[in-house]
What does this fold into?
Amino acid sequence: GQQLNQSPQSMFIQEGEDVSMNCTSSSIFNTWLWYKQDPGEGPVLLIALYKAGELTSNGRLTAQFGITRKDSFLNISASIPSDVGIYFCAGTNTGNQFYFGTGTSLTVIP
Amino acid sequence: DADVTQTPRNRITKTGKRIMLECSQTKGHDRMYWYRQDPGLGLRLIYYSFDVKDINKGEISDGYSVSRQAQAKFSLSLESAIPNQTALYFCATSDRTGGDLGYTFGSGTRLTVV
It folds into this structure.
């Protein structure tokens, strides 16, 4: 199957700091999504990207669709305790099946 | 009520037992999926279904089977559970229109096989 690698695998940051994480794929996608999973819950969609180079924001979150179409980036500004969770990227070409990354676990220290 | 409901939320079962995980949705979506989540491996697709008569294997279907009883219901069975099937299982749905609006996930079923 498709291999999506996320880095870093885990992050421990102080409240108020900015966060950056990325996702790289072994193949090209035409849609990238970013999800957040709170403890004990299923992933929830944060941002969807449909075009290479696209930059999209959702509040303090900003995601970018890489120019090569093999990568995507997520930034969180001014982190707060409720940002804690696991962040997953996902990609698709057909919309029929999404491939998920390995996840980045974020811990925010108050 | 949640849009995608999974039952049970937690289950402990013995090796060799048959177990069924159930998923129901009120989204009206045609497409339903079963994923398994393991630490460090992310979410891997087990089976998916685009309508009641359609069943497709995903990346890791061995040892699992599914049944799409109705548009709103999609169940996952482990015919003879083994310890390495211990994982968090998620059901998800998506809309037929390209699916690029992403999935709606259930809250997960934590399965432990002892």
